[in-house]
Amino acid sequence: MITVPAISKKTLWAGYALSALPALFFLMDGGMKPFKPAVVVEAMTQLGYPDSATVGIGLTLLVCTLLYLIPQTAVLGAILLTGYLGGAVATHVRVSAGWFNILFPVMLGCLVWAGLVLRSRTLQLLLPAVSKES
Known about the structure:
The chain is mostly helical. Helix content is 72%, strand content 0%.
């Protein structure tokens, strides 16, 4: 039987910090969409989405983010956010956006998973890069 050591406080806090960065961005982005400020409507139109889709997309992002922030549903939230971010990448590729616009959702997804892995011993043990003896 393998003994699983606890996560150090430094690692745990690093995980919380990394998780907070994308979560704050998602809460701001998703929280703005239901109110449809002009900048959001303009951006959504430029990306090819109708104005009627703005509220639904914002609420979807908020629900996924809240699931990510609840420890018991964090993995489900991370999976759903990964799908959401994949759609963002596809959207930016479709409209021939610049590299930053295409890679920004990828970077956010990396932060989502890095933060979750740092605060979850179970996920650390599932990764092939992490030794099961450690």
